[in-house]
Write a structure and sequence with these properties.
By secondary structure, the chain is α+β, with helices and mostly antiparallel strands. The protein contains 5 helices and 8 strands, in the order E-E-H-H-E-E-E-H-E-H-E-E-H. Strands 1-2-3-4-5-6-8-7 form an 8-stranded mixed β-sheet, with helices on both faces.
Length: about 200
């Protein structure tokens, strides 16, 4: 069970691994994020289309910052340590402070950084911060049922598939979206942590 004496209030923080640094999203990241997120394939299952310009990226970042101010989302930029480039973004969303739960979502990376160690390390950093620093009880993740790559990646880290919300939303392409939910709970984190550390050593 999570430690109740720790304050569960996700806020912007910098989390550093061996490949990437997750830092609070800022307007200074706009040019790099546009370069990483200009391809439509990156956003195929997302609620919005690809970033169309640096100005568009700035608008998206401002929306993220507005949600931060409202306490509903904490968005991070993934910065590749070797190059210093911002290569994508991820966030804590669906934050329920009363119940010490949140979701890791709104995750995307430029095509050059997909199927690399970037996503695994980002999940490791985010899950570790949620469970060890914030004493979360549950961290959820979700995916469009059609997004086989995302679903495999979520299962690979050790999350448990919970079920599918049918006709959950109307996708951007007009298709009925079925959303598959997954989670890691606090008692499972030690095993998931060990699994992730093994994956990162490969």
């Amino acid at each position: 069970m999570a430690e109740s004496n720790k304050v569960f209030d996700p806020q912007p923080v910098t989390l550093t691994g061996n490949l990437v640094r997750l830092e609070p999203i800022a307007l200074a990241h706009a040019a790099d994020l546009y370069a990483a997120g200009a391809e439509e394939s990156v956003w195929r299952y997302a609620a919005r289309p690809a970033l169309s310009s640096v100005f568009d990226a700035e608008g998206w970042i401002k929306a993220c910052l507005q949600e931060l101010a409202a306490g509903t989302r904490v968005t991070f930029t993934a910065v590749h340590l070797e190059t210093g480039q911002a290569v994508g973004s991820t966030a804590y969303i669906d934050i329920v402070r009363e119940h010490r739960t949140l979701e890791i979502g709104m995750t995307w990376y430029g095509t050059a950084w997909q199927r690399t160690g970037v996503n695994t390390e980002c999940k490791y950093l985010l899950l570790g911060h949620a469970f060890e620093d914030l004493a979360a009880r549950r961290v959820s993740l979700k995916s469009d049922s059609r997004n086989e790559r995302s679903r495999r990646a979520i299962l690979r880290i050790g999350a448990v598939e919970e079920g599918t919300l049918r006709n959950h939303r109307i996708a951007r392409d007009g298709v009925d979206r079925h959303t598959v939910y997954y989670s890691v709970i606090d008692s499972e984190w030690p095993a998931v942590k060990k699994r992730l550390e093994g994956l990162m050593r490969r």
